TrEMBL record:
Domain NAD-dependent epimerase/dehydratase, chain residue ranges per copy: 88-202
Keyword list, A-Z: NAD
Protein name, entry field: NAD dependent epimerase/dehydratase family
Pfam families with a match to the protein in the record: Epimerase
Lineage: Bacteria, Pseudomonadati, Pseudomonadota, Alphaproteobacteria, Rhodobacterales
């Protein structure tokens, strides 16, 4: 019986579950919310309220996916259940990290062998969490995700209602990934385990953020959102922190080792798909 224990069952893990459930998998997803637990159950997922007893779920799990964001103490599940997880008998373990671990490269290219030099607290916490998971000696696979978008997480609503702004910082580029491609990469890795492997999960076309909003407006038949210089833009501290780092992320490894053909190799393909799907 193939059973996935999803620790911190969020947006990316839900996309993976949509691929696995029709194949007869059992998916157990943790959540802190009773309301969310009811939603998961309605969608065919066994909910597990957390904090709670992971023991029975770990005993059943053939595969484990950890996607909870780390705090100052590192990974929240390892902080409370590290000893139990170290004894897990799963044949595949995945950890969802971020390309933020590479830090700023002034728009230059990085790959999985690039030294980790994060400049933000969030990136530093991810490096710490990666190392905590690596120290357990499990059949671990690390997935460093670029900026995630997909159904419900596209730019169209803000473009439509006129609140979108194209924040322009010369030389700034981001890599992105559609959530459907995250799910297919994870499934491919589960089918072809390579313990110790690290994969960048991103599309083929790093691009300035203002280009994405401009294309979204074009698809909607609307004028492009107004440009605002980065130094004059009103942003939350978290939003501004994303602009502290600029890099282009290579994805050759997911193609060479996992045979991935991206469903959405660039943001144009992804946005067209979202609009066609009613986003």
């Amino acid at each position: 019986m193939k059973t996935l224990l999803s620790l911190g069952h969020g947006y990316s893990a839900q996309a993976l579950a949509h691929r696995l459930l029709p194949q007869g998998w059992t998916v157990i997803g943790t959540t802190r919310s009773a309301a969310k637990a009811a939603e998961l159950e309605a969608g065919g997922i066994e909910p597990l309220l957390w904090p709670g007893d992971l023991g029975p779920a770990l005993a059943r799990a053939s595969h484990i996916l950890a996607s909870a964001a780390p705090g100052r103490e590192g990974d929240p599940f390892l902080a409370t259940h590290g000893a139990e997880l170290a004894r897990a008998d799963a044949r595949w373990v995945g950890y969802l990290s971020t390309t933020g671990v590479y830090g700023d490269h002034a728009g230059g290219w990085v790959d999985e062998d690039t030294p980790l030099t994060p400049s933000t607290e969030r990136g530093q916490a991810r490096v710490q969490a990666e190392r905590q998971w690596q120290a357990l000696g499990l059949p671990l696979h690390i997935f460093r995700l670029a900026g995630i978008y997909g159904p419900g997480r596209g730019p169209f609503e803000k473009v439509r209602d006129g609140t979108a702004r194209r924040i322009v910082k010369p030389g700034q580029v981001f890599s992105r990934i559609h959530v459907a491609d995250i799910a297919q990469v994870l499934e491919a890795s589960m089918q072809h385990p390579e313990p110790g492997a690290i994969y960048n999960v991103c599309d083929d076309d790093p691009a300035p953020p203002e280009d994405v909003l401009g294309y979204a407006a074009e698809l909607l038949g609307l004028p492009p959102p107004p440009e605002v210089p980065y130094d004059e833009a009103e942003m939350t501290p978290m939003a501004r922190s994303f602009y502290a780092e600029s890099k282009r992320v290579r994805n050759d490894r997911i193609k060479a080792r996992l045979g991935i053909a991206l469903l959405h190799p660039d943001y144009r393909s992804g946005l067209r798909s979202l609009l066609a799907g009613g986003d």
